[in-house]
């Protein structure tokens, strides 16, 4: 059973919330949530609630953007060979597709390359670079990778290839000798927003190239239309990579999700239909995270991500439908493989007695490297410990790690560098390589670092509640108003509320095709609402035995439309008796 959750309620500020709500003509509940997000200034709150393309920053402010645009433009004029080199996750695939769409829009022959996850691993491949050199490639544009690839980019430079890095990962102590490094996280960067995804940086490069070819910061109408359409791919990567949905990312996500719904890409439309989203139907961040993203990721995890790029760029209906069917099958295969690895990894974690540890390092021979990141994330949700999962084969391990608040993974792996062959990533997600005979050493070093960095209270998951309310406040109109906060995600979570003094009424029902969810009713005075507790079958006895007793719920309200009528349901995140 997962560890109990700590409830943390934001400080109620009723007077300020009412005043802000009055300025914005919204309910005080939304005013309180905006205060919780640090948006107490009415002008800033108004901009947040109404994302505007005009607030996007000029791409020329990114490091080396001018050099990158000039070199690419020169290569296009001279007909030089250009290769776009992407990563195999949703962010990398989206960024690759974005750049390739630009070159096709311009009528230029440009190739792309995505490494094989199984044989080449993350980031630049020396073998591929040497082949590019023999083939006469003159410009290599990386997307969502390259910032830490010093050795590989040195090889490229020595072969006469100008490398233009576009990336958002943390730089290492030494930067590679690239022709240009467009990364807002560079220590010398003065760009005001450094939280772009890889696809966001690629979008800025495309915009910069459009400016260069338009000979003006104001692009031509044709380029403007292309840029608005291409935000669909920028949004896919931005949402799927779980970057904070604030600032520019919020604008990219908001307009990009709209562009996805209206996309003219036959391949993307087919992918949406395969995910159960009809043509023209609104697309949410949740759709990207749980329906579209997994299908895109399945290609890179289980086979090869290039098939997804071909799908998104494709125009032939037969080929598109074949690819979508293949990706659906691949995604089902991924789910089965993931479940198998998770079962074995969870058993290994339980043998380690996670209650008496502050981290988990798990390794298995032959575990599929394409699913270990998802397995690590699932185990973090279950045990609330930083978790590294390693796939071992032929004496080498490929690892993927996920973390909790307060534990920065790249800092942790820097402290464990003596046990590793290499590593890279972000605070909450990272990858690494290790020799099989060093796994035990990594386990000890990782745990020692966790002991230094994490206090006992950090090991209990925390639910941050926006407000405690009376259920009578939850009208359909009030809950619909909360959708002004969409798209929600990292740094802008969906509103989480609590209500106390509730009674469970009636008998709880087990629901869902896997029979692992609960449905029950709660009352507070005259107010009665249906509550749905996803994945909480293990609490059935507790809920059943608590009928007639007071309880408190942490929940997210949602509007449920059924047979022409609408009501508010409570999606339960936790329950206390």
Describe this structure in words.
The chain has 577 residues and is of the alpha/beta class. It has 3 domains: 6-50 and 463-576, OB fold (Dihydrolipoamide Acetyltransferase, E2P), CATH 2.40.50.460; 55-326, Alpha-Beta Complex (inorganic pyrophosphatase (n-terminal core)), CATH 3.90.1640.30; 352-459, Diaminopimelate Epimerase, Chain A, domain 1 (Roll). The chain contains 19 helices and 18 strands. It has helices spanning 14-24, 28-36, 42-49, 65-78, 90-105, 126-134, 150-158, 198-214, 221-240, 247-261, 266-274, 285-302, 306-313, 317-351, 372-383, 409-415, 439-453, 476-481, 540-545; strands at residues 6-9, 81-85, 111-113, 137-143, 162-166, 180-182, 360-365, 387-393, 396-402, 422-425, 429-435, 462-465, 467-468, 497-511, 517-524, 527-533, 550-562, 565-576. The strands form 4 sheets. The protein has a 5-stranded parallel β-sheet with strand order 3-2-4-5-6, sandwiched between helices. α7 (150-158) links the parallel β4 (137-143) and β5. α4 (65-78) crosses α8, α5 (90-105) crosses α13 (306-313) and α6 (126-134) packs parallel to α7. The longest helix has 35 residues, at 317-351. The two termini are 17 Å apart. The mean pLDDT is 95.
